[in-house]
Specification:
Layout lengths: L4 E6 L4 E4 L4 E5 L3 E7 L9 E7 L4 E7 L5 E14 L4 E13 L5 E4 L1 H9 L5 H19 L3 H9 L5
Parallel strand pairs: 1-8
Antiparallel strand pairs: 1-2, 3-4, 4-5, 5-6, 6-7, 7-8, 8-9
């Protein structure tokens, strides 16, 4: 399946990386689903699946160990820019993330990076507001029992 060009833009550390090895599994006007291997090898994390929720400002990923067992769900709060002419997405990580463990434990991480990024001018007030509002939206989905719905676009690709 021919697909879009995807870049991951991080603010801390500042980088923009072409996700050239990500495999496009599905795309419509609401979501993009990809499969990938880690860019930098780690002992715990080996590969994963990600679903970009374009209108909702989040990316929900299944993180796997090398033996294909689920490590945890990792949810990035993101923004994106899309160039229709080149079919290119630049997905900007808005720093704060949510980890959902297989046992249901939920952990919010990297809130301190929001402060650092705003203080150093890497994050505008509008980006900070978007990050916090999207985080709140994601947490409300999780707390209200709706996380399974966010997981569902990835389920058909498990064990592929």
């Amino acid at each position: 399946m021919a697909g879009p060009i995807l870049y991951r833009k991080r603010l801390i550390p500042e980088e923009c990386v072409l996700l050239k090895d990500d495999r496009l599994l599905y795309r419509d006007d609401q979501i993009i689903v990809t499969g990938w291997n880690t860019l930098k090898p780690r002992k715990d994390l080996h590969h994963g699946l990600s679903c970009y929720y374009l209108q909702e400002g989040m990316k929900v990923s299944r993180f796997y160990r090398e033996d294909n067992s689920l490590l945890y769900w990792y949810c990035d709060i993101v923004d994106y820019d899309y160039n229709a002419k080149t079919d290119t997405y630049i997905i900007t990580d808005l720093l704060v993330d949510v980890i959902v463990c297989p046992d249901g434990f939920v952990k919010v991480v990297d809130i301190d990076e929001l402060v650092t990024a705003q203080e150093t001018g890497l994050l505008t007030d509008d980006m900070l507001k978007k990050s916090l509002l999207n985080l709140n939206h994601l947490l409300q989905i999780i707390y209200n029992g709706g996380f399974k719905k966010l997981q569902s676009p990835l389920e058909q690709y498990v064990n592929q």
